[in-house]
């Protein structure tokens, strides 16, 4: 006759076996990573991300110094030039419209992370307060950095006021895989800011149909 204690032990063993099977399945579902391939991807992606960080978090794209081009832009507006808060981007920088910036971003970052950047740069950041009440209002914390106006890609003139310190670089020889799942991998790298040793940074990379893409900040 099976005692109550024996039944409990049997039940507990069944639960443990199920947990072991689940953990084993999760382990098997983790992505297979070739570290040489991963390092090569980082060698390509990190310098590109540094350029994009300057676009999204630094002083932004250079503005046009061609006086005739700037004058032509302003003449499209029937208002005082001083009241216009955007000025044309220099097309020589390689970006002539918003789609150019988005395409370059999607060559480096995942669609999910890129969308965060797009919202910041092309929509702006705002919040709704007292939602659902008679006093509901929206407050903009950050206006769009870039807009297309009259055929020109323009930049908000005070973008530099929101810029954060940049200049982080990475030691790829220090790359260490710290975590992975079925779609991506987390690596840890030693970093430097303006040539001086800084913190170790963890970066997520996701394997997409177009290759590896960064899924976290690199600044």
Describe what you observe in this structure.
- This protein is an alpha+beta fold and 219 residues long.
- It has two domains: 33-58 and 164-219; 59-163, no CATH class.
- It is 36% helix and 30% strand.
- The strands form three sheets. A four-stranded antiparallel sheet has the order 6-7-8-9, with helices on one face. A three-stranded antiparallel sheet has the order 1-5-4. It has a two-stranded antiparallel ribbon with strand order 2-3.
- A hairpin with a 2-residue loop joins strand 8 and strand 9.
- Helix 4 (98-106) runs antiparallel to helix 5.
- Residues 15-28 have low confidence and may be disordered.
What is the radius of gyration computed over CA atoms, rounded to a whole number of angstroms? 25 Å
Low-confidence stretches: 15-28
SSE succession: HHHEHHEEEEEEEE
Main beta sheet: strand number and arrangement? 4 strands, antiparallel
The tally of domains stands at 2
Helical element count? 5
Largest sheet: spatial strand order: 6-7-8-9
Share in β-strands: 25-35%
- Derived from helix and strand composition plus strand pairing, the structural class reads alpha+beta
Helix content: 25-40%
Q: How far is the N terminus from the C terminus?
A: 67 Å
The total strand number stands at 9
Provide the residue-averaged pLDDT. 82
- Note the overall shape: elongated
Question: What brief labels describe this structure?
Answer:
four-stranded antiparallel β-sheet; 219 residues; three-stranded antiparallel β-sheet; single chain; 36% helix; 9 strands; 2 domains; alpha+beta; 5 helices
Provide the fold topology.
Layout: H1 4-29, H2 35-57, H3 67-74, E1 86-88, H4 98-106, H5 111-123, E2 124-129, E3 137-143, E4 146-149, E5 152-156, E6 168-180, E7 184-193, E8 196-208, E9 211-214
Antiparallel strand pairs: 1-5, 2-3, 4-5, 6-7, 7-8, 8-9
């Amino acid at each position: 006759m099976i005692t109550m204690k024996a039944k409990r032990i049997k039940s507990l063993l069944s639960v443990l076996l199920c947990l072991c099977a689940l953990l084993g399945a999760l382990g098997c579902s983790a992505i297979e990573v070739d570290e040489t391939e991963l390092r090569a991807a980082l060698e390509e992606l990190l310098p590109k991300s540094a350029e994009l960080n300057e676009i999204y978090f630094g002083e932004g794209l250079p503005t046009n110094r061609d006086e005739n081009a700037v004058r032509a832009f302003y003449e499209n507006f029937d208002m005082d030039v001083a009241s216009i808060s955007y000025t044309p981007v220099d097309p020589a920088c390689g970006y002539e419209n918003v789609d150019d910036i988005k395409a370059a971003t999607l060559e480096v970052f995942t669609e999910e992370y890129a969308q965060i950047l797009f919202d910041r740069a092309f929509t702006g950041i705002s919040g709704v307060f007292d939602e659902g009440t008679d006093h509901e209002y929206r407050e903009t914390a950050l206006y769009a950095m870039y807009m297309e106006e009259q055929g020109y890609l323009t930049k908000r003139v005070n973008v530099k006021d929101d810029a954060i310190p940049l200049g982080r670089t990475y030691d790829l020889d220090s790359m260490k895989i710290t975590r992975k799942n079925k779609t991506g991998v987390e690596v840890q790298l030693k970093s430097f800011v303006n040539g001086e040793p800084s913190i170790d940074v963890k970066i997520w990379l996701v394997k997409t149909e177009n290759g590896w893409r960064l899924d976290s900040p690199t600044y």
